[in-house]
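Lab notes, practical 5.
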Amino acid sequence: MRTDWRRALWWFIGVAALFAALTLVFLIERVKAREDPLAIADVAGVWQGSDGGRLTVRADGTADLERVTRPGPDCGRSTDAAGRSYTGPAAWVYDTYPDERPGIRFAYQGPATTKPCKIYLVVFPQKDGARGFLPQDPPGVSYVRSAGQQG
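Output from the prediction step:
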């Protein structure tokens, strides 16, 4: 009988230790996954797209968008190549596109309709600059930021 009690005690200690270790690993991974909030230094500057698009982001919340793919038909998107992009002023705020990393959201008035249009830039801050992408762009299109070239 005495060995059954010891065996149960060691089994309980083992299960408790395993649970504590798994909880610790989960908490460490959660802290690692938490991202620092973006700062002006992470987003302000000129973002050049691999497809020829360009985003000029200013610290005051304004931006100029050039040849940026429109997000959808409510924003005046047409089937002709010239109508598929937007060039003009926009305002921006910090935001997170669903299922993506933090970034910024641009808002502008649709040229073909009076509906407001929104474009998201998902941002990956790096030591030597920043990279990002617009979810509505075709696959493979990316943006690279040059902090010192504000227009």
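Observations recorded by the TA: Residues 2-33 form the longest helix (32 residues). The helical segments are 2-33, 40-43.
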